[in-house]
Amino acid sequence: MPDLFTPTFLTALLAAGIVAGVPLLYASLGETLAEQSGTLNVGLEGFMLSGAFVAFVVTLTTREPWLGFLAGGIAGAVVSLVMVVFCIRMGLDQIVVGIAIVLLAEGATSVLHHIWYSASYPRLPSVPVFRIPLLSDIPVLGGSLFSQPLIVYLGVVVVAITAWALRRTRPGLEIRAAGERPDSLDAAGVSVIRVRTLAEVACGFLGGIGGAYLCLVGAGTFVPFVTHGMGFIAIVITMLARGRPWWSILGGLLFGISLSAATALQLVGIQIPQDVVFMLPFVSVMVVLVLFARDARLPSALGIAYIRGAR
Q1: Per-domain boundaries in the chain
Q2: 170-208 confidence digits (pLDDT tens)
Q3: Phi and psi based region of residue 84 (left: phi greater than 0; alpha: psi -120 to 50; beta: remaining)
Q4: 131 forms bridges with which residues in the sheet?
Q5: pTM (predicted TM-score)
Q6: Which of 134, 88, 81 has its CA nearest to residue 104?
Q7: How many helices (H) and strands (E) does the chain have?
């Protein structure tokens, strides 16, 4: 029986967990902003998938990963405008529109990839890794936590800024009010539609960056359906985080490890059936929901369209 507690295995497990967890971090952070404002993004998977494909195309064309990340974020923001128009502005059902976004993104990216790249399946240039001096030399943790692309560290900074802004700034207060008491926010002279729109576009941008990371760093290429349900896992993380952005890091890492555990086990010689590999993260989601879903605290106006003057 291979030793599962060797430094090599633990480093590989943690590093693979970060690769899988960073997309969940960005996506769940964006979903936190949207849900706190009252919008439920079932279409988050579509934001991520659109961001992944556009980031792949731009990076392949320019050979500049940072342009790819930016383009992926913009692509996610553009797709989020569908939610803005149909759900926030017109008041249509958020779940139905979200599912439509996912199906549209899956179909469009698959067809375009087949037309442009199915004959070659090109690979992308590797994203440079930044090693933090001294910390990167720590056994086990150094080679995984402190030897990552800059986009990983940027994610931690964005989490910190978001956590501070939601609790300590007027825009953060407006976002939370739009999700809890939109009528009171409207009575105070602040447009609920505007607040929800900005939060939704921010969600799309962050979700697009999460998808871009999955493509540029995780896979090194784009394949159809590359997200494999990560958008829905990010929604679960957000609901369990209860509006606390710092929990996005913990949730992303834990679910990332469950997503990558099979790869790490294969590294030490333990073979796992492919069906179990695909099933493991969703089993983890169900277990977590059973254990902690009762404690989830969701905004009272989540998923409810706001129509001025309606009761």
Answers
A1: 25-229
A2: 999 999 999 999 999 999 989 999 999 999 999 999 999
A3: alpha
A4: 147
A5: 0.90
A6: 81
A7: 12, 2
